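step: validate -> pass
step: tokenize input -> pass
step: predict -> running
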Amino acid sequence: MIRRGKDVWLAEDLRSDRSWVMPWTSTELSEIDAALHAVKDKRLDWELIQAELFPLNAVAEKLALVANYLEYQRGLVKLTGLPVDKYSIEELQIIWMGLGVHLGSPRYQDYQGQLMRKICDEGGDPANKHEHIDSADSKFLSSKARTYSNGVLRFHTDRIDVVGLLTVSQALHGGGSKIVSIQAVHNEILQRRPDLLKVLYQPLYRSRLGEEHDGTNRVYDLPVFAICDGKFTSHYSRTYVEAAQLLHDTPRLRDEQWEALDLLAEVCEELCFTMTLERGDIQFLNNHVVYHARNAFEDGHDQEHKRLLLRLWLSMANSRKLPDDHNVLWGSTGAGELRGGIGQQVL
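step: predict -> pass
step: emit ->
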């Protein structure tokens, strides 16, 4: 069935309708600055910030509009104009967490309690620091390891309702952010190959490589596309599918499954919208309806031209209900429930 709604869009729709871009006003920026100093006066670490400790009024109203837009409109929002040069990285972490707790509930991004990830190129071989699988002729990097490189990130979703990125600085060259409406991709596949669309509604095995503690050999199965109570959702990263196929006891994918994944990637590239995130830009994406990807980039020698984004994962109070089988990944599937993120290591 063809998917319809405001979250079904093409690149030209985002170019002609810029309602998804929301600049900060001077009043809102003053309010954010005052909230920062309220936290600093209490000498609080950013990890401890709760909404009542980061007092907002006009900004809180804007974030309520953002939450509505993410779930019921396009599924993406870009907030522009935060003066990042005015603040230290520690102050930006306070501001970013303060905004995050007013929008949703931050969730862990790895099994070691990481609530905010610095997305940057660490240099060297990511396999030396992060999870990977040694295959016959190479080191297969986890999705986490790939975020710490300057390479391409393929279209995927994160394991959370909403992912937020605050741009502290950008690379000298490259690093474009690519996004695509998943349901627009769904509709195009339906037109071209309805037989392969059916395959994407069937379970695929994925590895937990780089997610839970000792997750490499742990697999689960979920479909790429699913519908619950009329609402669409997708959880997908080809990296986890490929990682599972490197494990000897995982059932092999059929040819039609690989063909469906190839077509999915092809259509994503055809339909995507590419943007450059400037310093101070904030991007929020609803992972149920928007895939995101990244072009490769090259950092400069000075800090101003070294790409650095701060990432938050947010569970949303206005989120949609998910199919029961998604409990294996999300921990809970009820609408508005606290869910998603990475389970913590129990010692």
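step: describe -> The chain is about 30% helix and 25% strand.
step: cleanup -> pass
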